[in-house]
Design a protein that fits this description.
- By secondary structure, the chain is of the alpha/beta class.
- The protein contains 21 helices and five strands.
- Helix 8 packs antiparallel against helix 9, helix 12 runs antiparallel to helix 13 and helix 13 packs antiparallel against helix 14.
- The protein is elongated and about 90 Å long.
Length: 393
C-alpha cells in the first residue's frame, strides 16, 4: 500500500495501557501511517468515532468501563458505523471469551505480544477487502447491513447470493442459520449450521447456535454434544460451562452439574460478573452450600448484599422443599440485620406453613413493630389469628 494512501487512513487505537498504546502508535508510524488517534477505553473510542472520520479501529479486549467486546457490539449495532473495520487485540488468557466474536464480527485480530509484521499483514488484509469489488464480499456486506437493521428477509437474500457465489465458504451458511433460528425455523437453521461446520469444523458461532436450538427443543443430550465441541474450541469460555451444567442438571446428572460449575468457578476467578453467574447457577441447581461459599469468598463484603442473598437462598431452598436449610439462611440473615423486613416475613411464612403458629406469630409481630404499614405482614397476622382461634382437633 502506498504512503499516500496510508496518509489518508485515520486509525484509532483503543487501549487502557499507555505503554501498549504508545507501542502500537510507534509501529503504525513505522509502517507509514501518520493520522493516528487514541482512547483509553471503549467509551472514549466511541466518542472519537462519532466525532471524526475513523477508517480502522485497533482495540484491546480487556478494558474498564466499555471493554473491547462491548465496544465492538456498539459499533456493529449502529446504522452509521456497523461496517467500520475492527481489529481486536487479545491475550491468550482471554481467548476463550474473545473467540465467540471472531467469525461473525471482528475483521481480524492480534494475539499479544503484537509484532509489526503481523500488524502490517492484518492491515493489508483489511485494505484489500476495502478496495475489493468481489461480488461475494459485496453480498456479505449488504447482508450484514440488512441484518443490523433487522431486515431479516433482505439479509437472508443477500447471504443466499453470497452462498451461491462462494458455496465452499462457511460464513454465509452461519448467517443463513442465524436468521432462520431467529425466525423460528429451527430445522432450517440446524441444516445451515451443520453445513457451515462441514466447511469449517471449529466455527464456534455455528456450534453454539446448534446447542441453542437443541436447548429450545429440550434435547439436552444433543445440546451437551455440541457444547463439548464448543469448549474444545473455546476452553475458557465460562458461559459454555454454565450451559453444560444447566443441561446436565436438566438430565438429573448432578455429578456433571457440579463438575461443570466447579470448572466455571475456576474460570471466573475474582471477576465479580462471572462469579455472580456461577453463584446463580449453583442456586438454580439447588446447591445452596456451594453458592453460599462462593458468594462469601468471592463477592464484596457488604451486609446489605449478604442479607439480600441469604434471603434469596432461603426462598429457593424452600422452593426445593429443603425447609431446614431455608430456615437456616433466614436466621443467618436476621443475625446480620435483625430488622430486615422481608426476611422476618419470609421466616414467618415458612413457620406458618409448617404449622408452628406461635413462632410464626412472633416474627410476624416483630415485622409489624418495625414496619407498622407492612400489608403482607398484616394479612399473615389475620391468617394466624384465624388458625389459632380454631379449636384443636
Amino acid at each position: 500500500m502506498s504512503h499516500n494512501k496510508k496518509n489518508q487512513q485515520r486509525i484509532l487505537v483503543v487501549d487502557d495501557n499507555l505503554a501498549m498504546r504508545k507501542m502500537l502508535e510507534s509501529m503504525l508510524t513505522s509502517l507509514g501511517y501518520q493520522d493516528i488517534c487514541s482512547a483509553i477505553d471503549g467509551e472514549g473510542g466511541w466518542e472519537k468515532i462519532v466525532e471524526g472520520d475513523i477508517d480502522i479501529v485497533i482495540s484491546d479486549y480487556v478494558m474498564p468501563r466499555l471493554d473491547g467486546l462491548q465496544f465492538l457490539h456498539r459499533i456493529r449495532s449502529s446504522k452509521e458505523f456497523f461496517d467500520l473495520p475492527f481489529i481486536m487485540i487479545t491475550g491468550a488468557d482471554n481467548w476463550g471469551d474473545f473467540i465467540n466474536t471472531v467469525q461473525a464480527e471482528v475483521d481480524n485480530y492480534l494475539i499479544k505480544p503484537v509484532s509489526a509484521d503481523r500488524l502490517e499483514e492484518v492491515l493489508n488484509q483489511i485494505h484489500y477487502q476495502q478496495k475489493s469489488t468481489s461480488p461475494y464480499l459485496k453480498a456479505i456486506h449488504a447482508g450484514k447491513h440488512c441484518y443490523i437493521l433487522k431486515e431479516r428477509a433482505k439479509a437472508f437474500k443477500h447471504f443466499l447470493l453470497a452462498q451461491a457465489i462462494e458455496p465452499t465458504l462457511a460464513k454465509p451458511y452461519y448467517y443463513l442459520g442465524q436468521i432462520s433460528k431467529e425466525n423460528g425455523r429451527s430445522a432450517d437453521a440446524a441444516k445451515f449450521f451443520k453445513k457451515c461446520l462441514e466447511i469449517e469444523s471449529n466455527y464456534i458461532n455455528a456450534i453454539v447456535g446448534l446447542a441453542e436450538i437443541y436447548s429450545q427443543e429440550n434435547d439436552y443430550p444433543q445440546m451437551i454434544t455440541y457444547l463439548h465441541r464448543a469448549v474444545e474450541v473455546a476452553p475458557k469460555n465460562i458461559d459454555l460451562y454454565l450451559d453444560l451444567a444447566r443441561a446436565s442438571y436438566m438430565l438429573g446428572d448432578l455429578v456433571n452439574t457440579r463438575k461443570f460449575l466447579k470448572k466455571s468457578s475456576k474460570i471466573a476467578k475474582s471477576n465479580r460478573e462471572y462469579v455472580a453467574k456461577v453463584v446463580d447457577a449453583y442456586v438454580e441447581s439447588g446447591m445452596f452450600d456451594e453458592a453460599d461459599y462462593l458468594f462469601g469468598t468471592k463477592m464484596p463484603d457488604d451486609d446489605n448484599e449478604t442479607v439480600i442473598f441469604w434471603n434469596r437462598l432461603g426462598l429457593k431452598a424452600k422452593e426445593f422443599g429443603n425447609f431446614q436449610k431455608s430456615k437456616y439462611f433466614y436466621l443467618s440473615a436476621l443475625k446480620l440485620r435483625p430488622q430486615a423486613k422481608e426476611v422476618n416475613l419470609n421466616i414467618a411464612i415458612l413457620l406458618y406453613e409448617q404449622g408452628d403458629y406461635d413462632s410464626s406469630m412472633a416474627y410476624t409481630s416483630k415485622a409489624l413493630r418495625l414496619h407498622p404499614d407492612y400489608d403482607d405482614a398484616k394479612e399473615l397476622l389475620r391468617s394466624l389469628r384465624r388458625k389459632m382461634e380454631q379449636p384443636s382437633p
